[in-house]
Amino acid sequence: MDTLQAQLYSEDQATADRAALVLLSSETEESFRILRAALSPSNSVTTRAAVIKAFITQRDNRIRAEMTAALGDKSDTIVELAKTHLWKIVGSDVAGDLLVIARDASRGTRERVAALTVLAEVGSAGSVEGTLDLLDDKDPQVVAAAVTALQRITYQPFGDDAETWRDWYRQNRKLTREQWQRVGSRYFTQTEELKGEIAALQAEVGTGEKEMARVYARLVDLGVELQRWDIVIEVLDTGRPIEAQIYAAEALGRSGKVPKAVGKLIEKAKSPDARLAKAAIEAL
């Protein structure tokens, strides 16, 4: 045991790795005590890395608390290993601890982002509400990491639009994560198909505006059905067929989702096309 303990503190990574793995494999209380003590931040990165790798290899989750704390370590190596352990070995049980770290503005950006990076892998439906609050955080890196976590957990591509995320969650919070995935997959597949159809029509010489407008109308209908108002608003862009823009404006008016489109609708209210201007004004 003394020889293994000495090797654990070797400056040679391979030697330390072997010692840590043998100690953990021995499954004694003494060996676990030695390994846990070796995780102290006062010890070298080589020693601590060897211990964490052993626990990952053996799929042992007894150092959950130490790994959660290690997300704020000064060493990138230790942080990455801690993230791997929490994600692969501990799993969803650590989601609550990760949210506590991510929501604590007194902690450093690096630690909060690390917590959200793991949450993106292990988060469950129960993690969404707490993560939504981080969309209003003052730290842009934390906001970006929260967006990634939300997208990975819910399969919805709303970016950093906090209002859209909250609207979606209010209406879908009772669904399971599997149901979120089915809706997200359906949206992605159908949207890509419609965009491909639009691109093909645009490349085809002699395509009529009415034909283009019909495809855009289907895109609007999909956006309304799946509450993807960003897609509906996008159809209002200049260059889209007038009929499609009118259809999108009318859909926004019926939906009551006008606040997100106010700027675009005000612009369209000044359109030289009287029908589009009327639809935009009525939506407002």
Report what the structure shows.
By secondary structure, the chain is mostly helical. It is built from 17 helices and no strands. Helix 4 packs parallel to helix 6 and helix 15 runs parallel beside helix 17.
Over the alpha carbons, how many angstroms does the gyration radius reach? 26 Å
The whole-number mean of residue pLDDT values reads 87
Low-confidence stretches: none
The SS-based structural class is: mainly alpha
How helical, in percent, are the residues?
over 70%
What are the key terms here?
284 residues; 70% helix; mainly alpha
Task: Give a quick precis of the structure.
Helices cover 70% and strands 0% of the residues. The protein has 284 residues and is mainly alpha-helical. Helix 1 crosses helix 2, helix 6 packs parallel to helix 8 (109-122) and helix 13 (209-225) packs parallel to helix 15.
Describe the secondary-structure layout:
Elements: H1 2-8, H2 13-25, H3 29-38, H4 45-57, H5 64-69, H6 76-90, H7 95-102, H8 109-122, H9 128-132, H10 140-154, H11 162-172, H12 177-203, H13 209-225, H14 229-234, H15 242-255, H16 262-269, H17 274-283
